[in-house]
Amino acid sequence: MRLFSLLGSCALVLSVPAALSAQAAQKFAYVNSAIVLQSAPGRAEAEATFEKDMVVMRAQVQKLSDSLNTMQEAFAKEEASLSPAAKEGRMKTLRDKQAEYQERTQKLSDQAQQREAELMQPIMDNLRRVLDDVRADGGFAFVFDVAAGSFIVSADKNLDVTDRVISKLRLSAPRAITAPKPAAAKPPVGPLSAPAGVTTKKPPTE
What is the CATH number of the domain that holds 89? Predict the structure, then answer.
């Protein structure tokens, strides 16, 4: 799951000022948040829980998709024999069904994002606490994030506290949020294709 695109919205750079003080006594360190998150306790469990939830959501979308496809195929076969009034009525029914499909998939997408954030919250909160502790223990004024997208292009490796953060994280792992017990029948888990003629935002699958 792309459970863990949250990195982009939850910056791990701590206390970065608009302009750094020039005081010589200040100490700095850096961390690679991408490596930290890969090793963060609870992440694998959160990913597994999210995937279970997505199975249920994909099944709901698939049911709507199948129903809409069936209606579209039936209309395509019968269109030539329909009267103008009947044709207009069938087209309106299809438009209503497409609108229902789009509205439902949008709601499921929103629910998926909310669930992703919910699962990641204890992991991110714990990570922030650990980063604060490492910064305080090391007497650092600032801890920078050097993951992809950072403006730091070169740094002393002795200032890298990534391993220290990971070690401390393993000692303070949060309890993972559990998912509801899955239904007995397993719905399909593969990516879904929208019905012909329908463009909509899908729930995240990774």
Answer: 3.30.910
